[in-house]
Amino acid sequence: MNTIIHKLVDSVRWVVSVYLALLVVCCVSCNKSVHIPPPANSITTSQVFSDSSDLAAAISGIYSQIEYANTGGIGFCNGAQTIWCGVSADELVPSDVSADAQKFYINELASTSGIVLSDFWIRPYNFIYQANASIEGLQASKVADSVKNHYLGEAKFLRALFYFYMVNTFGDVPNVTSTAFAKTSLYPRAPKSEIYQQILSDLKDAQTFLPADYSYSGGQRTRANRWAATALLARVYLYTGDWADAIAQSGALINEPMYGLSGDLNAVFSPNSTEAILQWRPNTDYLPFDATAEGAQILPVQGLPPAFYVSPQLLSAFEPNDQRRIAWVDSVNSDGVDYFVPYKYKVGQDQHTPGGTPTEYYTVLRLAEQYLIRAEAKAQQQDVSGATDDLNIIRSRAGLPAYAGATDQASVLSAIMHERQIELFAEWGHRWYDLKRTGEIDAVMSVVTPQKVGGSSWNTNQQLFPIPLNELGTDPNLTQNPGY
Amino acid sequence: MKMTLVLLTFACLHVYSRGTAQSVSLKVTNAPVITVLEEIKKQTGYDFFFNVKTLESAGNVTVAIQNVSLQQALDACFTGTSLTYSITGKVIVISEKENATNGDVQPQTMNGPPGEFRGRVTNANGQPLSGANVIIKRIHRGTITNANGEFTLRDLKDGDILIVSFVGYKSQEIPVKGRGGAEVTLELAKNELDKVVVQAYGKTSQRLATGNIATVTAEEIEKQPVVNPLQALQGRVAGLDVSQTIGYVSAPFHVELRGRNTIGQFPTDPLYIIDGVPLTVPEITNGSTTSRGFVQNPYMGGPAGGQSPFFSINPADIETITVLKDADATSIYGSRGANGVIIITTKSGSVGKTNFEVHFYQGMSAVTRHYDLMNTPEYLAMRREAIHNDGYDKYLNNPQFKTYFYDLVMWDTTGYTDWQKYLWGNIGKTTNVQASLSGGNKQTSFRLGAGYEHITDITTFQGANQRGSLHFNFSHKSLDQKLNVSFTNLYTIANTNMVDVSALVLAPPNAPPVFDKNGNINFLGWYPAQGLIANFGRLKQPYEGTTYFINSRLGVGYELVKGLTASVSLGYSNASVNQTKQIPIISQDPTRNPTGSSQFGYNTNLNWIAEPEIKYNTLIGPAKLEVLVGGSTQSVSLNGSYVEGNNYVNDNLLGSVANAPHKDAFDYYSRFKYAAIFGRVNYNWENKYIVNISARRDGSSRFGPGKQFGNFGAVGAAWIFSEEHFFKNLLPFVSLGKIRGSYGTTGNDQIGDYQYLTRWSGTNIVPYEGNPSYVPLQHANPDYQWQVNRKLELALDLGFISDKVHAVLAWYRNRCDNQLINYPLPYLTGFPFVTANWPADVENTGIELNVSGKIIDQKDWSWNVSFNLARNTNKLIAFPNLQQSVYANSLFIGQSLDLGLVLHSLGVDPQTGTNAFQDKNKDGTISTTPGPAGDLYPINLAPKFYGGLGTDIRYEGLQLSLFFEFKKKIGANAFATLPTPGQQFNQPVEVLNRWQHPGDKAEFARYITNNQVSDNYLRSSDAAFTDASFIRLNNFSLSYTLPAKLSKRAAMTNCRFFLQGQNIFVITKYKGVDPETQTFSNMPPAKIIAGGIDITF
Fold first, then answer.
1. ipTM for the predicted complex
2. Which pTM value belongs to this model?
3. Is the dihedral of CA B167, B168, B173, B174 positive or negative?
């Protein structure tokens, strides 16, 4: 009897133990045991694009990135082109003694350049990723077309803008239009023509999707509209030699009553100036506060030499009595030496203040360039008088007499180039890109480079920046530009 | 899971009540006790265990009871007698009430019913040993003891001998010789091989282990005046590479066991388990900024780049640090065992007199080596020569270009500052006070420890670290020994205060003073070297971090039936960190119209774990079988926030974020959960043949849906051939000969959270025009899954001359396939990384040797030596489609992962004075383009071998210990990390040996201000690497213990004076401050010398 009870108790204990063991097994093997809630501080792509206010934030994020993704104050599409291309060309001289700045100046960039990597490669491709992700998200989104289409237009415009500067900085670049990293990580460089096709297609879509006014940015000219797409389209046609289309697009803009050249040169870069087609608005809560990135970087502080000043070549290119020499160039004397600085933006680092309303916006596209685009395209089509008419509109605004030089095509084209050099100096690297697209770069730089402090000689390979070495290591199909 | 615990507890109680709720009815008058007991046995089925003489001496009793419980019946029965009882399982032990001791059962001789032999196994403190083996030598059969240490054997013959053994104790042979029972007291093992070592979910000894387990004991840790316990491991464990990343004491350590397993950049840290609670610290990264350890706010890593979690653990509270290396030892940790496991066990109280111990030391620290840099005339001459070489003489005196030559034209050319001394010239001070109270009796023991440390840095600016800690350990066993409860708690407050002094020592020696007359940073004086002086601005930007860390564990176990124990372990840890960093206006360039800003970081890392376990052990014939089945569920959550106040116009308000004109807030968030079941079967055939099988099924929330679970397992086996008779006869001086091997799988979970999700957030972005703005955070990959590491190990363990010399030679081969890595992508994809599996197969093979010996072991004096050496070879053995991957040009089949791709330097060209390199592909140009278009070739940067050598000499009370660490490796040449000589940075005096004229044969190229390509190439050539091998006297400890007579006179149990040192000197050919940190500019690890006293009352 006792042994039976013993055995019974024993077996009860065993059953309990096995039961416990099973319980443990059941408890941990179900999926619920490792279920976690989604992160509280982020949302997924499908969530972003299923709601009109979230998808608006995705597009707004691209503008934010442009304005605040930077090193040392300037970044891609926010001053980097102006400064680094200006220094590379014959526009600006750095008094900044850092080796990085010097390498741009003397045209001896290395493929390890940190600035090229971060400001001309990492950031643009990061912005492009966001544009691609937004385009993919918007296309898949069930939100009504009427709500989402103008965001699609903005994303496409911005992607085109980024690629325009990429292709003109590096030549052939990978044409990444998708977020599928498994595929894109092995992309080779696409020919320039393919990139331009992509840009054109994006800009045409943008023209379709975007409204012709600034209603959705509250009247501020701070977000891309149909005219911004048109302005960039005119420039792209000019760069690709499609003169007729360049004339058509720039003409449309010039005829648009919303835009007109500013009578006051000091007001060209003011917020929502009549000349402005697209501007970035500074956020006055953050450095450099109400100063634009460029103003903060270039304008001198407290009698010290400016970090970047106007080159002797540019200074001597101004014609006498050019009002732009007065309104857009300032000087500072330091230890008996006069330094001349670009003064298109007036608020510098030592004048900026937190809060308040900015007195200037960072101007991306403006009407004056459209006149010069049309002038050049007309000259290319042998319409010399049409060309000089447009040219003279710009000259007259600068207080200069009408063009009185030779009227052969070459002379007129040369006059337009000169006008571009002056009108668009220290703006978005226009000079550097103009020299490259017209093929004048070797003639100009082979004279200028040896004149630079520390500069030795110009090599035509130097017109393309090097593909960052780092990137060559991670994409086996990427090739380097010659000479690096 | 909570439900399981409740059920478990309930079930335990239930079993307990069933076992004792028997009803008894009795009516006897003046009957002998033995008669009454027989009646109770009949009614309840309980057996009695007694000494016949004891019962006889108790006389007769009278009892009248009806339907009462067993206890009531026994109480009634024994009232008024000299007897007492205890119930253990189904056995009731009767003994005499003892007046002298604490009333525990302690029969001197025991006799069971005829034909039975009963006994009890205890340790020297009288505590029963549960689960001890009792084997009848004749027939190789036996039994194990129950919770109370008791056993019963039948059918013994008179000449039989019992072998009683228990892990950690010396075995005993007990002759039966006509006795009916025996009380066996086992002595603790004195030799290293039989001492208890901690293993995964249990204990074993070096002799019986089938896996590779290494232990560092409190004795070794106490000799080292270190703040971080990881530092105490440096060089002590074969195959474990521990190095300090930077000189700040709170800084994270780099810990790597047996080489690099993956091609990716994820951390290589082993799994750390502190008192049974896995230390699970999420790694949060923010693009390029990473802060490691407890300080997870990526914006606020502080100058040390994070904070080691072990900065919050007081080495004085640690009993042992156990390193588990092979599959057999680590597989039971499944998904987290791939990089090895380090188990930290804190101290506990022991039976006996209550001890009060005070430990105090005061120490000093200083930089180990300075480097000879140029003085001002040498520096200025270098600059002028460089300017001349560049052909810039014409610009030198042109005021327009003064900013290019500020050190020569604008600064005082007669000034001189030794920046190394200026920055690191301080003698740091360390104060360490420890006190502990410990004690216990057979049932309960405790330890209460408290510690405080204060350490100042070697920087001449502010910087101090403080740590206060409390440790509490309590354990209790019920009277019947079946229930045991233990509780351990660590609580630490650690405070660090630092300024960043990096990148400053190479400032020109004639640079102006750092502070002007008013004590402000001399920004204008340093113009235009804005970058350099901005670094000095950081001296006025203090960083402070305070960490609160709790680590608790509650363990409850109950023996259900003999050999079967159910237990549950509940663990909890919480690390919270408060950080502040201020950037006052006075620390910034006043010409830039600066405003102040302040950063506040808070994060809380909360971690709980519950692990129910069932253990069963029994004897099957002569073999002992141990089975363990358990479950584990763990949850970790991290909440972090970072608030930045900007645009302050007054530095006095920087401490208040509410007063900031503009504020930004960021947050960090992470959750993860683990769940697992695991099991282990250990089969031990007479300590001769041992097989150990373990398995685990693991689930982790770090993987996407459908990829969360994985299975891991291992088999280990050992043959202790020295137990074979033929061997014993042949080589009697070999006390242990063991061959063991193991094979198994482990996983690695050290990847980021939520990597399978697309994530958009407005956290890191400034709204555009006030509109909400999101940015994507990462590439999402829903498809990655477990990585499996396969580990194979073979080892030979030998003990000689009664285990006085012990040697272990281990060979291992670890392979890691389908690697889970942070796969680098080209930036053109949008982000530089994605978490993915990659079919690369990496192999680490190596040999480890450990030898330790007691050369002299006498009462008066002793001399011990220990030595370890490890050599690891790391190799990529397969990589499908390597040529089409991002690693096409950086990894090579058959070669190490730690490769540097370099040009071959041909030295300085005597004609041009520039650095010359080999044109490997003979295309006429030197190119660093990866692949065949360039001239790079791979060199192996992995350490060749490393290890440690310790020696310990004692003469009476005087003891001297020395510990050397050594490493053979190639490291970055300090010269190659310097800017090109000729620029506005100071240089070591060696650089004076430069090329000047055609025909010069010089070590260094001509001075130049403007790097040319060949100067840049120097950094990517083999000239940038050099022998960084070293031998370091890592530790010395000299102590004197007062003779017992003297200390007793002062009412002390023990009194010891000591002088200790850490990182005393380095023997190395390496030119630079430290062969391990390998740079000129970061604060190097300091040497520490401390003296103190240790008293026990």
1. 0.93
2. 0.84
3. negative
